[in-house]
Design a protein that fits this description.
heterodimer; A: about 575 residues; alpha/beta; Pyruvate-ferredoxin Oxidoreductase, domain 3; seven-stranded mixed beta sheet; about 40% helix; B: about 290 residues; Rossmann fold; eight-stranded mixed beta sheet; about 15% strand
């Protein structure tokens, strides 16, 4: 059981509402779901789609073949009809499209009429469509009623009742009139969590005790800010929409200096403005977590599309030399735990830590059985007041064997806390002498980095234990690469996925370079034009992959496309 | 004045005779008069001769980037609203590089006290025009004279309904000290533009030049009348008013944030057991 539904239409027609409601029904019924979205940089019009993959086993990437195409505009049919499987169905309302289509694949359901017949407004056609799809698939309708109640909790009883009747009307119509509908529904498991990419980073931030988030809205990072804003009251968190990205990172650094775990988030263009602030974080040794949600550049690029082309930007951003850590989660579960880990490392070593995603991952939703809070690194690395007050003097940048100085908080000790963007003495005051400068560089860079390397987990190694082909990936390509490896099991294939990409994991726990060397063929799969991760791997380990599959048209890899690419190179 | 030893900082690297010394002394005396202990306040600065200011006062210090003192100060104030947060910068730092942040700090009315050392010239980079340089002033980098109109920070602040708007003069010690104390005691965002000569580089706006022109704003000025304040802010030339030009009672930004209506944010962090309970509840919302 592995079905794909695509809901297409113009922006503003409510395709997201339908998609979200259906997905929630499926995950509550205990099925595995994967959803992704494709949209244009506009609020109304254009062509957008929401794709849902539904299965009784784990699913981690979008597929091309469609079982059901829900068309709210003509473009949905023109662009996606050829993706339909042989027995697939295109469901639409001829009155909305002002056109009828002939052929056994078409199912014309009067969404608008069924909606207005209940006394509801025409927009309730969305609810009719949602009910109709559940009817086509043969699912029960009841879970949708709960979801409608939740979605419409601010509306009146009459509206909620109209929506319930609308869902029922669509459901009954589809059940009666869909001759082709014969979906096999395997038994499902327990209800599942449904987590989106942006929400996962937001949750990870909360789990890392993030209490200050300042940012300037920018696709595809805005979702993180919206998630945190919605939890601000509950968690006692300040979310401040800054006047620009320069202010955003500086505010976060101010809050962090004052003792509160802080974060900012943006995309490439906004991060370009933050770069001097990154350097400031480094020299003042102020912890900060930066969510960098990539989209295709240069400049404005494709604002609502996906790419993994800012790895080298994050790696090299900032004038001067200083340590940093870069995480690139492959799915929401990794995003939750790695964002929490980012906060821990950032405060422990007083360094900037990046969590990199992209539009694709930000806008996907995945199901999880559960998420454990037990392994979260809940530890405070700030220096306790009692510890500092006993000292004759406190020096914010004191030289230590680990390079990490006690992190004093202004106002929380009888001493003053002094830091500077100029090179400074241990006490934080401006210096000019060569000796102090040399020691400060070594403290910040070399001493810290040695310990930071030990914090980085090995990459994920899956598939054949003695592989002939190894697929190498980082960040958001994890899901699609994993599906490809599982589908090509007979070819002695394996994957190595890096979600902690800088510094690269050392080889003591798992010698991935040895695995790569032993394989005949190694293919790095990246959503960019130059193979940035492959280059990082070569720079850091001396190992060069034998091949690369790169996609840089602003779209994510689909399972079938990746399989074709890999097979084409065998 | 007694009680100033506790604010003793590093030895200043300013030119002898610089107007900054007078500002430094007035500032320390104002702190002593208000009995504010060094670890109870924080000075945030950027880059410029004024950017070095916090090193010369013993206090919590964040000497950040050029133009960026206000966002850092905003972050500190939001994280710990119990702390007095002061921002210091020059005319280039605050009115040039950091202009956008100044506009928005005024809009927010964040409880940060800003003191601008305004010498109408760039000191650290040696004598280029600043946003407040007078039109026509010739410098090495402006050989045809300054072509842009002089920025009027007071009029700009009144136009933006800034909470507390005042001008001081480095050469009028007692008056400046009183002004600093008023600004420190104001709840929201206060801007004090402090005129000072740059003895090395500004040959126009000298001690003598300012001395002949500045006058105290009298009791007859209603600083709560925004239109009158705007008129006062426009005065410049033969007579330059010093004192409180404008003030209002807009509530400060941090008091409007429900999340920190009680304790400062920093006091509520690192409570892991409590956090775990909240996270468990949030996890249930994902089902």
């Amino acid at each position: 059981m592995d079905y794909t539904l695509k809901i297409g239409g113009e922006a503003g027609q409510g395709i997201q509402t339908i998609g979200d409601a259906l997905t929630k029904v499926f995950s509550r019924l205990g099925y595995h779901v994967f959803t992704n979205q494709d949209y244009e940089s506009r609020i109304r019009g254009g062509h957008n789609f929401y794709q849902i993959r539904l299965s009784d086993r784990e699913v981690r990437a979008p597929r091309r073949p469609l079982d059901i195409l829900v068309a709210f505009d003509r473009a949905s049919i023109v662009l996606h009809e050829r993706e339909l499987v042989e027995q697939g169905i295109i469901v639409y309302d001829s009155s909305l499209l002002k056109e009828s289509f002939e052929g056994p694949q078409f199912l014309d359901i009067p969404f608008a009429k069924l909606a207005t017949d209940t006394g509801a407004k025409r927009i309730t056609a969305n609810t009719v469509a949602t009910g109709a799809i559940l009817g086509m698939l043969g699912f029960p309708l009841e879970p949708l009623y709960d979801i409608i109640k939740g979605l419409l909790k601010r509306k009146d009883d009459e509206t909620r009742e109209q929506n319930r009747l609308a869902a029922l009307a669509g459901y009954e119509y589809a059940t009666k009139n869909c001759g082709r509908c014969a979906f096999t529904l395997n038994p499902s498991g327990a209800p599942k969590m449904l987590v989106g990419g942006s929400d996962a980073i937001g949750f990870g931030a909360l789990a890392g005790d993030c209490r200050f988030y300042s940012a300037y809205p920018m696709t595809p990072s805005t979702g993180i800010m919206l998630f945190l804003s919605s939890r601000a009251k509950e968690y006692g968190l300040i979310v401040e929409q800054a006047e620009d990205e320069i202010a955003a990172i500086n505010m976060a650094l101010g809050a962090s200096f004052a003792g509160v775990r802080s974060m900012t988030g943006t995309s490439g263009g906004g991060f370009a403005l933050m770069v001097e602030g990154l350097s400031l974080a480094a020299i003042t040794e102020t912890p900060i977590v930066i969510a960098l949600a990539q989209r295709p550049g240069p400049a404005t690029g494709l604002p609502t599309r996906t790419e993994q082309a800012d790895l080298f930007f994050a790696l090299n951003a900032g004038h001067g030399e200083f340590p940093r850590v870069i995480f690139a989660p492959g799915d929401p579960e990794q995003a939750m735990s790695l964002t929490a880990k980012a906060f821990n490392l950032s405060q422990k070593y007083q360094i900037p830590v990046f969590v990199m995603t992209d539009q694709y991952l930000a806008d996907t939703q995945w199901t999880l059985d559960s998420f454990s809070l037990d392994d979260l690194p809940m530890r405070d690395w700030r220096a306790a007041a009692e510890e500092l007050d006993g000292l004759d003097e406190y020096r914010r940048h004191a030289l230590t064997s680990t390079g990490v100085s006690p992190f004093g908080i202004p106002g929380k000790t009888r001493h003053v806390v002094v830091t500077d963007s100029d090179e400074h003495s241990e006490a934080g005051h401006i210096i000019e002498d060569a000796e102090t400068r040399r020691k400060m560089v070594e403290k910040r860079l070399f001493l810290k980095m040695d310990n930071i390397r030990n914090e980085i987990s090995p990459p994920l190694f899956l598939g054949s234990k003695e592989p002939e082909t190894v697929l190498v990936s980082w960040g958001s390509t994890y899901g699609v690469v994993r599906e490809a490896v599982e589908l090509m099991a007979e070819y002695k294939m394996a994957m190595i996925h890096f979600s902690e990409v800088f510094p690269l994991p050392d080889l003591t726990a798992f010698d991935y370079v040895e695995v790569l060397k032993r394989a005949g063929r190694t293919i790095c799969i990246e959503n960019n034009a130059t193979g940035q991760f492959a280059r990082l791997l070569r720079d850091e380990t001396g190992y060069s992959v034998t091949d690369m599959i790169l996609r840089y048209d602003g779209r994510p890899f689909l399972v079938e496309e990746l399989l074709e690419e890999i097979s084409g190179r065998t | 004045m007694e009680g100033l030893e506790k604010y003793l900082g590093e030895i200043p690297a300013w030119c002898p005779g610089c107007g900054n010394f007078a500002i430094l002394n007035a500032f320390k005396e104002a702190l002593a008069a208000e009995a504010i202990e060094p670890h109870r306040f924080c000075i945030v600065s950027g880059i410029g001769q004024a950017g070095k200011f916090p090193h010369y006062v013993k206090c919590n210090t964040f000497n950040g980037l050029h133009g960026r003192a206000l966002p850092v100060a905003t972050g500190i104030k939001l994280a710990n609203h119990g702390m007095l947060v002061v921002a210091v910068g020059g005319d280039g730092d605050m009115y040039g590089e950091g202009g956008n942040h100044l506009l928005h700090a005024m809009r927010r009315n964040i409880g940060v006290k800003l003191f601008v050392h305004d010498n109408q010239i760039y000191g650290l980079t040696k004598g280029q025009a600043s946003p407040t340089s007078m039109e026509g002033m010739v410098t090495k980098n402006q050989p045809f004279g300054v072509l842009s109109e002089q920025l009027n920070p007071m009029a700009m602040a009144v136009a933006l309904d800034c909470g507390f708007v005042a001008r001081g003069y480095a050469g009028d010690h007692e008056h400046l000290k009183a002004l600093i104390r008023s600004a420190l005691n104001y709840d929201g965002f206060s801007l004090v533009d402090i005129l000072q000569p740059c003895v090395s580089l500004n040959k126009v706006n000298t001690w003598e030049w300012y001395g002949k022109r500045v006058y105290h704003i009298g009791d007859d000025h209603d600083s709560r009348d925004r239109v009158k304040a705007f008129e006062k802010a426009l005065e410049w030339g033969d007579r330059i008013p010093i004192g409180v030009i404008y003030r209002n009672d807009r509530p400060c930004f941090e008091k409007k944030i429900p999340v920190i209506s009680g304790e400062p944010l920093v006091n509520t962090t690192g409570k892991w057991e409590d956090l775990k309970e909240k996270l468990s509840a949030s996890l249930r919302e994902f089902y």
